[in-house]
Amino acid sequence: MTSLKKVKQALRLLPALRLVWQAAPNWTLVYIIVLVIQGILPLVLLYLTKLIIDTIVESVNIVDKISNFQQLITLIALTGLVTLATVICNSGAELVNTAQSRRVADYMSSILHAKSIEVDLEYYENPQYFDTLQRAQNEATYRPNRILNNLVWVAQNLISLVTMVGLLLSLHWGIAGVLFVAAIPTVLVRVKFSKILYTWHRKKTAMERQAEYLSWLLIGDIFAKEIRLFNLGTLFSQRFDRLRFQLYKENLAISSKRAVATLIAQALATILMLSAYTFIIYQAYQGIIRIGDLVLYYQALQRGQDSLKSVLGSFSALYEDNLFIANLYEFLELEPKIIQPAHPQPFPQMQDGIRFTNVSFQYSTTTRQALKDINLTIKPGEVVALVGENGSGKTTLIKLLCRLYDPTNGSITIDGIDLRDLDVVDLRRQFSVIFQDYVKYNFTAQENIWLGNTDLPPTQDSIAAAAQRSGAYDVIKRLPQGYDTMLGKWFDQGEELSIGQWQKVALARAFLRNSQVIVLDEPTSAMDPKAEAEVFDGFRKLIKGQTAILITHRLATVKMADQIFVMDKGTIVETGTHEELMLRGGTYAILFETQAQHYR
């Protein structure tokens, strides 16, 4: 490991503190002040206790009892005030800690969300990404704030420790030495097992995710019907229990070893501290120190031990934090591969159209090429269809067109401009895309459609027009609150739609977007034949002159396309109109006849 890397790892704590400050600067400042005050007040109480005892002991031998009693009352009053201040400070610290911790946790969640939006789609198709995300989620909401707490506790206890060590040195230097030596074994144990636990957690992330996935299957509404019909509940529950029990056993084994090591370390510390206590008591027995001094030194040794344990414990915790915070940085340091060009060109009003030139693409998680030497041209206003069996590369081609990925080889241009030279957001704004696995948002019907173009005001007119085009208008009109009806069953008064009705709502979302190109991936797969016919009979009127790309297995719906591209194993094997392809008698004709015979 290079020196630069070591320094970088050692300074992991500083960015975490910066995140805490950015999340809640005012609350963080108040929290630090309160913690410092909490560290000073016990020292004041200890010193007042020493003065009270000395005053009581002196009263036995003095004549002026009244003056002595007044001094005692003053000390008791001061002790009461300091005690009251401690109570107020503790109550305030609880409030400040709650507010500050919540703000930091929410802020860290926002950072995770922002990074999740920023990273490319490619990451979401890679299991290692989900391991990284899982570890980041585990650390993000509490670890940065814990680093701040540990640093403040170090400062707080150092104040107490320095004071106590100074007192003990005035008695004998060996007492202070015993104090430090007794704390070392416990710290070494904690540092060692922090590293062991960190390594174990990283190795077991995939297993943790598997258990969470099984839990999601058991409680999620998406899987409820099938789990009951196939009686899968017991099977999945048993698998979940086995995984969790395996994790429990391994964690318990590490924890047991740590407990034994900690017990031995603390037993050694107890023996050493007992020898120091014996020495202090012997000094008082010999009359070398007074009773007040006995109490003071005894408390100083006890509190010094607590403070040193806290300081070293905080340093150990910081070492642990420094290890685990790397999980968060590992996620935050992911870099998107789809980047904005330095000088983006505006998206043109298409004149020449879209052109794929020798485009090939391979997913990073496989050795198989998803697309190979694709060459095609789509003219403005054309309706084209991509047909082919599952896995032939149709959806991948659309992902490249929307620049969710960049081609491995070749180029995609719009009016001669490479997609990589266009502003990414502007590019995607010009495409209305509804994939086959469209999202069913548990929002109102109005919001479900409006999400297709949030640049528009969520008015009934524009949304109703889009619903009319997709066939969703009649569906929404029959809902209890119309467009204000909550869809789905996750929230109160939600109304569930059929799959075909959901598809009409998703289609309305695509129609609402004021784009030059509309892409529909199996747009009517869940609709009944009548609804499908209503969509495609007037399709050119529905798309209002937009360039349209249809992906479908139902070949009867693509007869009206200007061009049909037949794909097989990542390549285009045939191109032409329906009539041309049928006359050719190739792949398309075979597929069409295979489907058509079921209707004869």
Structural notes for this entry:
The chain is elongated, with a radius of gyration of 36 Å. Helix 8 packs across helix 10 (233-285) and helix 15 (460-470) crosses helix 17 (499-512). 63% of the residues lie in helices and 10% in strands. The chain is of the alpha/beta class and 600 residues long. It has a 6-stranded mixed β-sheet with strand order 6-7-8-3-9-10, sandwiched between helices.
User: Overall 3D geometry?
Assistant: elongated
Q: How much helix, percentage-wise, in residues?
A: 55-70%
Average pLDDT taken over every residue: 81
**Rg result:** 36 Å
Number of strands: 10
Helical stretch tally: 21
Low-confidence stretches: none
Beta fraction of the residues? 5-15%
